[in-house]
């Protein structure tokens, strides 16, 4: 398809559409290409989308060999996939899989087969879920994401950053020196799996405990250009927020990102900006407010401000209660939310 698209461009000076590619590739699946015709169509669509996105005459991707080899990706439509007796059937072929999810009870939707860097294949599909129940929890929580501590909540819970990469870095380095490629790949996969597991457990626990979750909008990719990059990438903030979002939606828990400007500097008791500022204040883990005298943990105070801000912006009579922020406080100030300067 890539070559065809380029040839049409060279000969006729125009870009072809995916529908046109589909006409050329029609019947290929009957001539021995063991892919479903919908898979071929999904690929032509992807090709045209990416060609436009990256403004390329020809895409230079999906190498099938060598070190820069692309990982396998086979899109499938719902109608091309059947689940029977612990196997998925695709194109008349049974594919065995480890069903960790209980696929029998769901109707499979659109998805794909994908390969990881170790050559293992996964089936990703959308499924239909029943209407989620509304969460019966009424507590709200603010979450401050950080580098030293992965997160601090407005209730005072702190979770240390899981430095999985650093834990395994010596082993990875040793394997690299010994030129054991498979071992390196296995260790990287292990780092990834451990991190993912920890984030899943944490996000599930939070969604179970709270009825509303507000989280600071700290931008990992902006910070990742600095020397803090390794810690940031380790921390996996965006993955964590995504988990909270979908798990929250599933459990009927309110989830929202809050602008966290000044959340560190502001005293969560008296709203004055007496906290640590700028680069000089980065190492300050705790501080006392000059105005009201309250002793603050840096990150927990920030989480309290994030909760306050989220409650103010969303303040409606939801009956949510969060730490020191009562619902009446939130409801009373809510209408003024737009007029209140950043915390
Ligand atoms: Zn204060």
Reconstruct the topology from this structure:
Layout lengths: L1 H11 L5 H8 L11 H17 L19 E4 L4 E4 L2 E4 L2 E4 L11 E8 L5 E7 L12 E6 L3 E5 L4 E3 L3 H14 L3 H29 L2 E5 L3 H4 L5 H7 L1 H15 L2 E5 L27 E3 L6 E3 H17 L12 H8 L9
Parallel strand pairs: 7-10, 10-11
Antiparallel strand pairs: 1-5, 2-3, 3-4, 5-6, 7-8, 8-9, 12-13
The chain binds zinc ion.
Zinc ion binds next to loops.
In words, what does this structure look like?
The chain has ten helices and 13 strands. It is of the alpha+beta class and 343 residues long. It has three domains: 2-53, no CATH class; 73-127, no CATH class; 140-339, no CATH class. The strands form four sheets. The protein has a five-stranded mixed beta sheet with strand order 9-8-7-10-11. Strands 1-5-6 form a three-stranded antiparallel beta sheet. The protein starts with a helix and ends in a 9-residue tail after the last helix. The protein binds zinc ion. Zinc ion is lined by residues 267, 269-270, 272, 274, 289, 291-292, 294.
Instruction: Describe the main β-sheet briefly.
Output: 5 strands, mixed
Envelope shape = elongated
- Unreliable runs: 317-343
* Total strand segments: 13
Question: Termini, distance in Å?
Answer: 54 Å
* Helix/strand class: alpha+beta
Strand and helix order = HHHEEEEEEEEEHHEHHHEEEHH
Number of H- or I-type helical stretches: 10
């Amino acid at each position: 398809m890539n070559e065809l698209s380029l040839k049409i461009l060279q000969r006729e000076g125009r870009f072809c559409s995916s529908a046109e590619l589909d006409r050329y590739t029609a019947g290929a699946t009957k001539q021995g290409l063991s892919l479903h015709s919908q898979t071929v169509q999904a690929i032509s669509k992807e090709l045209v989308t990416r060609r436009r996105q990256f403004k390329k005459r020809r895409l230079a991707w999906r190498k099938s060999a060598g070190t820069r080899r692309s990982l396998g990706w086979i899109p499938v439509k719902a109608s091309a996939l059947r689940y029977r007796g612990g196997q998925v059937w695709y194109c008349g072929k049974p594919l065995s899989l480890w069903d960790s999810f209980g696929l029998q009870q769901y109707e499979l939707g659109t998805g794909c087969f994908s390969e990881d860097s170790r050559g293992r294949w996964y089936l990703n599909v959308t499924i239909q879920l029943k209407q989620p129940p509304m969460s019966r929890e009424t507590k709200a929580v603010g979450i401050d994401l950080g580098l030293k501590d992965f997160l601090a909540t407005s209730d005072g819970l702190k979770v240390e950053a899981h430095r999985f990469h650093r834990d395994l870095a010596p082993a990875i380095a040793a394997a690299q020196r010994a030129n054991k490629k498979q071992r390196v790949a296995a260790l990287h996969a292990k780092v990834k799996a451990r991190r993912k597991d920890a984030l899943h457990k944490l996000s599930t626990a939070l969604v179970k405990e709270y009825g509303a979750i507000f989280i600071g909008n700290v931008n990992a990719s902006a910070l990742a250009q600095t020397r803090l990059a390794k810690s940031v990438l380790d921390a996996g903030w965006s993955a964590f927020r995504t988990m909270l979002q979908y798990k929250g939606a599933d459990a009927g828990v309110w989830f929202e990102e809050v602008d966290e400007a000044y959340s560190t500097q502001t005293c969560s008791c008296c709203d004055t900006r007496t906290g640590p500022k700028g680069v000089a204040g980065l190492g300050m883990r705790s501080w006392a407010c000059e105005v009201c005298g309250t002793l603050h943990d840096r990150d927990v105070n920030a989480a309290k401000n994030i909760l306050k801000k989220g409650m103010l912006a969303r303040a409606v009579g939801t009956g949510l209660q969060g730490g020191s922020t009562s619902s009446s406080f939130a409801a009373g100030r809510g209408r003024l939310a737009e007029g209140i300067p950043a915390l």
